Amino acid sequence: MSEIRLGNRVIGEGYPPFIIAEMSGNHNQSLDKALEIVDAAAASGAHALKLQTYTADLMTLDMESEDFFIHDPGSLWKGQSLYRLYEQAYTPWEWHEPIYKRCRERGIIPFSTPFHPKAVDFLESLDTPFYKIASFENNDLPLIRHAARTGKPLIISTGMATLAELDEMVNTAREAGCTDLVLLKCTSNYPASPADSHLLTIPHMKELFRCEIGLSDHTLGIGAAVASVVLGATVIEKHFTISRSEGGVDSAFSLEPAEMKLLVSETEIARQALGTVKYGLTDKEKSSLKYRRSLYISKDVARGETLDEENVRIIRPGYGLPPKYIDHFIGRTASKDIKAGTALRWDLLG
């Protein structure tokens, strides 16, 4: 599997995990707040900032009937109609250009999740470098086909999709021209429980679909994200806010700047720690050899004196013979006078 590029960064084994800060609706309908989020994401070390590009009319119908209300008692958005929620959460399209501009000034890659072909066309006018398809749209094959035809990389979240649906989705993207594909393991619950994350799916997905795999993570904290890197995730997406106390549609499960900074550093540490299958001495352990245990004379011994457990001991440092040879010395005689503190050698035997 060849490496791919997302913007100016190479994605794949051997490279730092690609960290995406998802703004979503945490700007609370303030462009100034949106630009502040960009600055904070860049300062935290995130590599990309993601928007969501839609209008309420492109998402749903302005209806008050039961089908269009959120009734789930466990939902953060219980009691709202879909239309009103999307009105509250959407990012005005006229904000995209200044947000993209600020991202590029701060050295962070701007991109977005389009929720409709019209959104893809709009994002193309901003030279968006790649696209993300959300879990709730991964069954919208016409949308995936439209985005793939741009020829740009696609990131697709896999929440709720069956294996058959994933296969159909991947084939649709590739047949429409997508050559650089990233699938994100995702649990579409907000916030999600770590127990529902099933991160062991990551290497299985990589084997099945022969593409880069990452994690769209809605759990609290960074533990699941760090664990995903150990299993092969090369892209991590987390919702991001300046402060959860400020509220916002996704603030409850979003990372704050200090947490995002920790995510960037700890996922890279996890990647580096994987290394390769390795036994024995590393180059940097060579200086530690002297602190291993070895055989030493622990009391002065006269020539011809018998060596026993009183005058031969297994101790640190490691300049003597290895401990496994102690039985070759116990009961033998010394070939010469030996001072306490002498590392045992074969020529000291009589």
UniProtKB/TrEMBL annotation:
<dbReference type="Pfam" id="PF08666">
    <property type="entry name" value="SAF"/>
</dbReference>
<dbReference type="InterPro" id="IPR020030">
    <property type="entry name" value="Pseudaminic_synth_PseI"/>
</dbReference>
<dbReference type="GO" id="GO:0047444">
    <property type="term" value="F:N-acylneuraminate-9-phosphate synthase activity"/>
</dbReference>
<feature type="domain" description="AFP-like">
    <location>
        <begin position="294"/>
        <end position="350"/>
    </location>
</feature>
<dbReference type="InterPro" id="IPR036732">
    <property type="entry name" value="AFP_Neu5c_C_sf"/>
</dbReference>
<dbReference type="InterPro" id="IPR013785">
    <property type="entry name" value="Aldolase_TIM"/>
</dbReference>
<dbReference type="Pfam" id="PF03102">
    <property type="entry name" value="NeuB"/>
</dbReference>
<dbReference type="InterPro" id="IPR051690">
    <property type="entry name" value="PseI-like"/>
</dbReference>
<protein>
    <submittedName>
        <fullName>Pseudaminic acid synthase</fullName>
        <ecNumber>2.5.1.97</ecNumber>
    </submittedName>
</protein>
<dbReference type="InterPro" id="IPR006190">
    <property type="entry name" value="SAF_AFP_Neu5Ac"/>
</dbReference>
<dbReference type="InterPro" id="IPR057736">
    <property type="entry name" value="SAF_PseI/NeuA/NeuB"/>
</dbReference>
<keyword id="KW-0808">Transferase</keyword>
<dbReference type="InterPro" id="IPR013132">
    <property type="entry name" value="PseI/NeuA/B-like_N"/>
</dbReference>
<dbReference type="GO" id="GO:0016051">
    <property type="term" value="P:carbohydrate biosynthetic process"/>
</dbReference>
<dbReference type="InterPro" id="IPR013974">
    <property type="entry name" value="SAF"/>
</dbReference>
